[in-house]
Amino acid sequence: MVKLRLKRCGRKQRVIYRIVAIDVRSRREGRDLRKVGFYDPIKNQTYLNVPAILYFLERGAQPTGTVHDISKRAEVFKELRVNQTKSN
């Protein structure tokens, strides 16, 4: 099973998270399948590769709670619904 979750990067006291698609059994800093964005909690900045996120969500990937909140703020799930109605 694949999850969309945060991977810690940066240095001490200056953390930045990558949003990655990763196998559930991998550890937090483990090997990821694909990088799909980043999140900087200090500057409150995010960058999301929306087509890549939609690709994984359509194939059953589950976002963690934090990634779900970040994606919801960026309105990724609205685009997911639009894509699903077009395909049906």
TrEMBL record:
Its main location: plastid. GO terms for cellular component: chloroplast; mitochondrion; small ribosomal subunit. Keywords: Chloroplast, Plastid, Ribonucleoprotein, Ribosomal protein. It comes from the Eukaryota. NCBIfam families: S16. HAMAP family: Ribosomal_bS16. This is Small ribosomal subunit protein bS16c.
